[in-house]
Design brief:
The complex is a heterodimer of chains A (635) and B (131).
Chain A: H1 2-17, H2 35-59, H3 63-68, H4 75-86, H5 89-102, H6 104-131, H7 136-141, H8 146-180, H9 184-230, H10 237-245, H11 248-258, H12 267-273, H13 284-297, H14 302-307, H15 314-345, H16 348-354, H17 361-370, H18 376-417, H19 424-448, H20 455-478, H21 484-503, H22 511-538, H23 541-567, H24 589-606, H25 610-614, H26 616-625
Chain B: H1 3-6, H2 33-38, H3 40-73, H4 75-79, E1 81-83, E2 86-87, H5 88-130
Antiparallel strand pairs in B: 1-2
The chains are: A mainly alpha (635), B mainly alpha (131).
């Protein structure tokens, strides 16, 4: 075992250090001559996490250790691990990016991600700790038919995790390529192999520590960045905001976003507009739909639920949510400063030139704070943030793979196939084999989905969790009449509706719409470039750099638009054969979540079941009193 | 009313219908769950806890959705400046964080002071009866 883990560690290191040709492509945010810095920083992180895995591997010998770290994680540790599990690259880089490009709306977007933990704290964490064992399936099987509910729960767990996982793998691959310039495939395989090493050898023990280490790094990096961003304004909030609204780059970005009305506004008004809603989020119903999915979906995320089985008591579960809320909420407040700081110091134009979604805002801010693209310190800061981003992806993916693997081995193989009769050794082996299978599938999907738009998959994962897992768990815990048929019907209906609606929503690619949006850009480009070149000939030196940049941007835009048109060449309909969306919202939650609840209620009322109702007293008493709760195991 | 009064002796516990007994984790001694569920102290704890939890949950959801609804339908309100460039919208967004933390704090205090104590009393009584 240990020799194998050493081999795996070696392989992972090899992937990162000993294959220079794989890193030959230079188009990253980190300049090629400073790339070694990123590798040194990331190498240090890998060394640290591999050492933890090595220590963990010696402890992980039974199912309780593998799935739940022997229930010996403290509340504070678990709080940090939840934050590490939850703050994916999408929130770390994505929200800072949204704020840097759209101001207020980006900050507003972050709120739902924190409020989600109220649901977890009040309704889910402690009861699940009291009656649960290792998986979502265990909670549902408590009073319902174990085989049927474990099967549905496992399918749902794997579906939700694969959606989230795909978004992480593809997003992560693109991100690492943009940051460091490593080939997409290499970074997907590196993430996959590293994550597998943690999960297979160290199980939940190593996964927990990887998430804690990553959360600490992430918070440290953000605090440092905010400290240096805010310092010039004497840590005054109005002073900082005053500087933001008087910044010409922010004013230019607002003018670009609102178009014609900008001509009647003063520069200060333009700047102030950045701090007002409506620049990014245009459809309130869609936003409420997403908000519902976040607030209810987080509590149904299998990898989040699983974290509550790692602490010894319900009280520790409570402590862990409190810590997680403090860290996650504090982090989102910091992103406001990161986003505005990047908008002022780097500028939306430069940020979106490297990545249209704004993901490079925080890394570029780090580079600026350290002294800019030419300086050693600037590149060290950038390297550090890039390495933290990589560690983030690995930690989040590890949690997801562990959750899916547990559903496969504990719910399906042990629960359904073996009828709960596996020995501890068999169960741990099954869990390891499942992890390898899920890991290989994740790498495969990551490579196959290269170039696909996967941003909506995160929202879909939350929508499915909120429409399927949450109604089933909540009603199992709090409603006496809930039963197997209700759970099966509700979960199928909720998940089916969420997935079905997304397939016919504007999230899919509609070739006709792509052509309609991009053909004018391609057509207008030559005239635009010509006009700019004419100006360039007459411009003075100061204006020349700006115009050259504008020409390069126009050329890049035209090329990008052409690439989008080429990608849908010869197609007229979306993946499911539609030429236009049938459902106008991007987020299905507002319809699928009520349907999930309705399914559980109707199924339970129409097809009554004796056992589910007879077990109610036991479940209800145990959930409130922690009698017979799974205890911590010795190790 | 003492819990012990409503709890049958372990020896007579088998009088309950067998279907109510199986637990996913078989133990040497199994409490009579339905007797505990009917015990006034347990009923009191569960009712108080549920009322408090779902009340807080409702407040938190309503307060959260005021943000996107306000931003979409009352933008003029969100633009009112309260402290330099700091406007009502930003203050309201910050308040979402404070309210979330506040709810967590209120819940934790009551759970630590009250719910934990009540559930520990019931648990100790049951364990005493069984041993």
């Amino acid at each position: 075992m240990t020799s194998l883990s050493t081999k795996l560690a070696g392989l992972a290191t090899l992937l990162l250090f000993a294959a220079p040709e794989a890193f030959a492509q230079a188009a990253g945010a980190v300049a090629p001559e400073f790339r070694w810095l990123t590798f040194v920083v990331f190498g240090a992180i890998i060394a640290m996490t591999m050492y933890v895995t090595y220590l963990a591997a010696r402890r992980v010998s039974n199912a309780s250790q593998f799935y739940a770290a022997g229930r010996s994680v403290t509340g504070v540790q678990n709080g940090w691990a939840i934050a590490g599990d939850y703050l994916s690259a999408a929130s770390f880089l994505g929200i800072a990016g949204l704020i840097s490009l759209y101001g207020y709306d980006g900050f507003m977007y972050s709120v739902g991600w924190l409020v989600a933990y109220i649901t977890v704290l009040l309704l889910i964490a402690e009861p699940c700790r009291n009656i649960g064992k290792y998986t979502l399936g265990d909670i549902l099987a408590f009073r319902n038919d174990p085989k049927k509910t474990k099967t549905v729960a496992a399918i749902s767990t794997i579906t939700v995790s694969i959606f989230y996982l795909t978004a992480q793998m593809v997003g992560g691959g693109v991100l690492v390529k943009t940051l460091i310039g490593i080939d997409y495939e290499v970074s997907v395989i590196a993430v996959g192999v590293l994550m597998l090493a943690y999960v297979v050898f160290g199980g939940m023990v190593a996964t927990t520590w990887v998430q804690i280490i990553k959360a600490v790094l992430l918070v440290t990096a953000s605090l440092l960045l905010v400290f240096f961003t805010w310092m010039p304004y004497g840590f005054s909030l109005p002073g900082f905001l005053e500087a933001a609204i008087s910044d010409p780059k922010i004013q230019a970005q607002v003018a670009k976003l609102i178009g014609d009305p900008a001509t009647n506004m003063s520069l200060t008004e333009l700047g102030q507009r950045f701090l007002e809603p409506g620049l990014y989020l245009k459809n309130p119903i869609d936003q409420i739909s997403l908000g519902l999915a976040l607030v209810l979906g987080t509590a149904g995320m299998p990898h989040i639920l699983m974290r509550f089985f790692t602490v010894p008591t319900a009280k520790d579960a409570r402590v862990s949510v409190i810590w997680a809320m403090a860290i996650i909420g504090g982090f989102y407040v910091l992103t406001l400063f990161l986003g505005l700081g990047a908008a002022m110091n780097v500028g939306a134009a430069k940020i979106s030139a490297i990545d249209a979604g704004g993901n490079m805002a925080a890394p570029l801010l780090a580079q600026y704070i350290g002294g800019g693209a030419e300086s050693m310190l600037g590149n060290l800061f950038l390297a550090f943030v890039a390495a933290v981003a990589f560690a983030t992806i690995v930690a989040v993916v590890a949690g997801l793979v562990l959750a899916s693997a547990s559903a496969m081995s504990h719910d399906i193989w042990v629960g359904v196939v073996k009828g709960e009769s596996a020995t501890p050794e068999q169960e741990v082996r099954a869990a390891r084999i499942s992890s390898v299978i899920v890991g290989i599938v994740a790498i495969g999907i990551g490579i196959a989905a290269k170039g696909q738009n996967v941003a909506h998959l995160v929202a879909l994962a939350f929508a499915v969790a909120a429409s399927s897992n949450l109604p089933a768990v909540l009603l199992t815990l709090y409603w006496k009449k809930c039963n197997t048929k209700g759970v099966v019907l509700g979960m199928t209906l909720g998940a089916g509706t969420a997935i079905g609606l997304v397939l016919v929503s504007p999230n899919m690619t509609y070739p006709n719409a792509v052509r309609a949006a991009n053909e004018p850009i391609v057509a207008a480009a030559p005239a635009k470039i010509e006009g700019l070149q004419a100006q360039l000939a007459l411009a003075d030196a100061a204006k020349q750099t700006e115009l050259t940049a504008a020409i390069a941007k126009a050329e890049a835009d035209a090329k990008a638009a052409q690439a989008k048109i080429d990608a849908v060449a010869g197609q007229t309909t979306s993946m499911v054969g539609l030429s236009a969306p049938l459902f106008t919202l991007k987020n299905p939650g507002i319809i699928s979540i009520p349907l999930g609840f309705l399914g559980v209620i109707l199924g339970s009322l129409l097809l009554r079941e004796r056992r589910s109702e007879e077990m109610w007293d036991e479940l209800y008493v145990r959930q409130h009193t922690a009698l017979h709760a799974e205890g911590a195991t010795a190790h | 009313m003492a819990l012990s009064a409503t709890l049958p002796k372990p020896a007579t516990a088998s009088a309950a219908p067998p279907a109510a007994k199986p637990s996913p984790v078989p133990r040497a001694a199994t409490p009579d769950w339905s007797a505990i569920a009917r015990d006034p102290r347990f009923v009191d704890l569960a009712t108080r806890k549920n009322r408090f939890l779902f009340g807080l949950m409702a407040i938190s959801i309503v307060y959260y959705f005021l943000l996107p609804i306000g931003a979409a339908y009352f933008p003029e309100l969100f633009k009112i400046k309260v402290w330099g460039p700091l406007n009502f919208g930003l203050v309201f967004a910050f308040s979402e964080f404070l309210v979330a933390w506040g709810i967590a704090f209120i819940y934790t205090r009551r759970a630590n002071d009250e719910f934990d104590r009540l559930s520990a009393e019931i648990r100790n009584d049951v364990m005493e009866r069984l041993s």
